[in-house]
Amino acid sequence: MGAGGLAALPWAVISTRYPPQARAKMLAAISSAWLLPALIGPLIASVMADTWSWRVVFWGLVPLLAISAPMCVLPLRVRFRQPQEGQAALGSRRVLWAALALAVSAGALVEGLRRADVLGLLLGAVALIGVGLSTRVLFPAGLWRFKSGLPSALMVRGLAAFAIMGTSSFLPLALSELRGLTLTGAGIVLSLGGVTWTLGSWIQARIEDARGEASRPARIRAGLGGVAVGVALTALGVLGVLPLWVIYPSWVLACLGMGIGYTSVSLFAMSNVKAEGAGQLSGQLANIESLMVALAAGVGGALIARVRPLDGAFTLAFAVTLLGAVLALAVAGRLWAGQKGKVQEEKEANLV
């Protein structure tokens, strides 16, 4: 819950406090905050797990949180607004209940996928209904129909996260079980991906500065194309169809494409929302990512737990996340359908 709240804050701040021409750089700066953790985090965690225990990795975070919490909270001391009243308060409570329902539904869906019995089927069915009803409140209409504009932007973001973060959730295990890499060796692969994701974010910021909004469609296509190709080649390398060394450049390609395409989609979403809707958008951006990552990890974990032989389970898990990458690239075409209509309306208004 804490991470979800923190994840939504940067989007709201950037949307309301920075002009459009500065947002690409700010998104890249936020990605840079991941650079050091992405570079050394997986490697250190892998060494600790190999040397002592994976439990040490989790307990080792407690001192870091104790040190960083005051640094994060103290500069943000501001006067809070008065509690909302009337219809605004009712709307806020409605969204809060929908968010809780989404969390419970997503958890129930993951548990339903994990179980191979009647209760699992029942949980899955009820959870799908819960996800559908709660997303109708939390997200703009047309999300699951890939409606042009903001709904498609949110889905592209979610599907891209489904592909990359879903794959990274089981990639170290696959490298260890199928290719014999140590956890440290698998951690190096994830570290390379984190660094190139950050690099991709800065590349898109430079292109945005040089060529403006007109370059976003090409950036999004190129980035999501890199995600799809990179995930596919990574899967072939892990499964032994291609040599082991292919994994390194292919995962770099996937994460570089993620940094370029993912951030460009976020810019597109910001440009489709007015300043007063920035808070709602920030929650939507964080929620769609969390939902899709949870589903990807849940589906992948269920397959790995239940399917044998293990290489068959990993094949299916890679196929699921690759499908997410391909769908993200396909749905991206819906972004500009709405933009064309918007531009045409603006032209007609100017003529009048």
Describe this structure as you would to a colleague.
The chain is mainly alpha-helical. The chain has one domain: Up-down Bundle (Growth Hormone, Chain: A), CATH 1.20.1250. The protein has 14 helices and no strands. α9 packs across α11. The termini are far apart. About 3% of the residues have low confidence.
Provide keyphrases for this structure.
Growth Hormone, Chain: A, 82% helix, globular
CATH fourth-tier homologous superfamily? MFS general substrate transporter like domains
Number of helices: 14
What is the terminal separation in angstroms?
A: 49 Å
General shape:
globular
Give me the CATH architecture, please.
Up-down Bundle
Write down the Rg. Answer: 21 Å
Largest beta-sheet details? none
Q: What would you say about this model in short?
A:
This protein has 352 residues and is mainly α. The chain has helices at 2-17, 20-32, 35-51, 54-59, 61-73, 86-114, 118-138, 150-179, 183-211, 216-238, 247-271, 278-306, 310-331, 335-351.
List the helices and strands and how they pair.
Blueprint: H1 2-17, H2 20-32, H3 35-51, H4 54-59, H5 61-73, H6 86-114, H7 118-138, H8 150-179, H9 183-211, H10 216-238, H11 247-271, H12 278-306, H13 310-331, H14 335-351
Helix pairs in contact: 1-12, 2-9, 2-11, 3-9, 6-7, 6-12, 8-9, 8-10, 8-11, 8-12, 8-13, 9-11, 10-11, 10-13, 12-13
